[in-house]
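ok here's Gcv operon activator:
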Amino acid sequence: MSYPLQALRTFVEVGQRKSVKAAAQALHVTPSAVSQQIRVLEDRLGVVLLERERLGMRLTEAGASVYPRLREAFLQIDQAMHALERSKGERSLTVSTVAPFAASWLVPRLGRFKQLHLDIEIRVEATSELVDLRRDRVDVALRHGLGDYPGLEVTCLMAPVLTPVASPEFLKTCQGAVINEARDCLDYPLLHDGDRADWPLWLKAHGVADDARAQRGSAFEDDFLLIRAAEAGQGLALVPQAYAQEEIATGRLIQVLDKPWPARFAYYAVTRPSAADRPEVRAFLDWIRAEAAQ
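and the structure:
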């Protein structure tokens, strides 16, 4: 009996990510297409491989019995194709990072890397999803976190500096607004990061005791959304300086206080232990360390 290869690959992606939506993003298809492929495979086999639960999908007993071997098989296929591409003499690498960092920091600087390494092709994948460096054929992941990536090579690049900003229109509507100290920010609507952690930490760093007002206001999972909300005059936002440089330079946002403070997380370059043996990966890591040091 022959089996539908695409359906098997889809099953592996859902089994790995425990989510139809996340698998769809990885495969660059719609969630309905993923669900259809799973139905095709289950109908062909006559067994249920995945079951929906409150927080996503889980493997059934039958699914769990075949998932490890299928995952290993597709991993070997990917490695073989990657080796074939390398044997053709192509020098390329794939870099995965989150969209705000790619747009505001990495992409504007990539031209300098190309000037130094004309023979290396860079592919940038912008995603906030967790990636499997080996399975997803990612050479370097640039991530914002605590640097805890077991079994991988980790290089600390930089800690983003947070600064409070607001739109000129917002400051005009707050007639008589006086923001001379960090505690003055608590008198105005605050715009937060997704976990509402940055404002309380920033205020504490500037000597402001715990205050319930530090948790008020809208929250945004993406820093770009946070910046857009600030531009729209919805409140004060605490954003990484690197992300808002253009908005501040053009006057769309105003830095309301010159009291930056490094965030508790940093940016890291993460690779497989053997990846740096490849000249193109080593060249990229050397370059991005130098850029971050500036």
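+1. The chain has three domains: 5-86, 90-156+267-293, 161-262.
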